[in-house]
Amino acid sequence: MSVGLALGLCAFQARAQPQPSAAVPAASAASRATPVRAPGASVARQAVKPSTRPLWSELTEAQRQALAPLSAKWDGVSEAQKRKWIAMSQNFPKMPPAEQAKLHSRMTEWVALSPQQRTQARLNFGKTQEISADDKKAKWEAYQALPPEEKRKLAAGAASSAKPPTTAAAVKPVPAEKLAKVPQPKPVSRPPRIAAGANQVDQNTLLPQPAAGAAN
């Protein structure tokens, strides 16, 4: 084979080899790109309230039984409110069934309230706590001792006092004979003034002259 033919074959093979693809750098650049996070993900993460202690998993079995209606919202409840619920339910095993049901009913109602309604409920509960338990019991027993007719009267009176008056009461005129008479002041009698004579006045000073007896 001649030298020229060998060189021509080498050049032909060099042109026939495929060129490297340009898509490889693009793919590597895409792999280095930072993934874009959804804008709502950070907002949703910030909206989650931090859990307060003690967590539901940290409560005892007796506490979980007493606070069962609060289990779904317990970890998001404030620490102060948790202490109050724990204190209120610490004697739960010794309570009568009626008292246990009443306490669980209050917890269920409290969980369904909004934060504003919970604040108002806490204020109302504080006002009722100002009355002693003995006073509450005495008033309740006195009310239960009333006959049904008196209970209906009290309920009707409370309902009527709660309603504001629709119109102002008309002012009735008072008869003239019922009006109190104001006493008229008596005229004050004053002594008559004594007129000074012409010979009793000094013509130069226009002052009264002393009497003749006083001069002596």
UniProtKB/TrEMBL annotation:
Domain of life: Bacteria
Positions of the UniProt region annotated as Disordered: 17-52, 152-216
One of the Pfam families matching this protein, by short name: DUF3106
InterPro entries: DUF3106
Transmembrane segment boundaries: none
Ranges of biased composition (kind: Low complexity): 17-39, 155-183
Protein name (Swiss-Prot/TrEMBL): DUF3106 domain-containing protein
Organism from which the protein derives: Caenimonas aquaedulcis
